[in-house]
C-alpha cells in the first residue's frame, strides 16, 4: 500500500472540527521542540478540547499559518505565551481562541499512556536546558526511561 502525505492544514483543521464536536484526536507530532517529553514521529498525543490553557499545559494552536504544539508558560487573560520543552529560547504568542486543543495524554510506542506533567521543574531548569538536552540527545539509554527501569529491575532480580 502506498502512503500519502497530507498537509498539516487538512489534518489540523479536521482535528479542530473533531475536538469542537467533543471528540478526542490522536496523532503523532513531528519535530523535536517538545523533547524530552514528547518524541516527534515516535510518541502520539491525545488532544481534547478542555479549556485548560494555564501555564504548564501543552496545547496545539494555530499561529498565523503554522501549527504549534508547545507548553503554555504564561497567561494574561486571553493572551498566551508558548515555548517548546526542547527549546532553549524563543517563544510564541497567541490568543486562547487560537488554541485547537490541549494534550491530555502522551502515548508511548509501547502503548503506555502518560498524563503530561505541568513542567514546573523543567521550566526551572531553563538555564541548564542546553546541557541537559545535549546529554539527552547523545546518550541513547537516557532517551528510553522505561528501558532504564527495566535494566534496574533486572539487576535487582539478579541480586536475589
Write up this protein:
With about 160 residues, the chain is of the alpha+beta class. The protein has one domain (about 10-120): Umud Fragment, subunit A (Ribbon). The protein has helices at about 10-20, 120-125, 130-140, 140-145, 145-160, and strands spanning about 25, 45-50, 60-65, 65-75, 80-85, 90-95, 100-105, 115. The chain is globular, with a radius of gyration of 17 Å. Mean pLDDT is about 85; it is low at about 145-160.
In short:
The chain has 160 residues and is of the alpha+beta class. It has 5 helices and 8 strands, in the order αββββββββαααα. The chain has helices spanning 8-20, 120-124, 129-138, 140-143, 145-159; strands at 25-27, 44-48, 58-63, 66-76, 79-83, 92-95, 99-107, 113-114.
List descriptors.
eight-stranded antiparallel β-sheet; 5 helices; 160 residues; disordered C terminus; single chain; Umud Fragment, subunit A; globular; alpha+beta
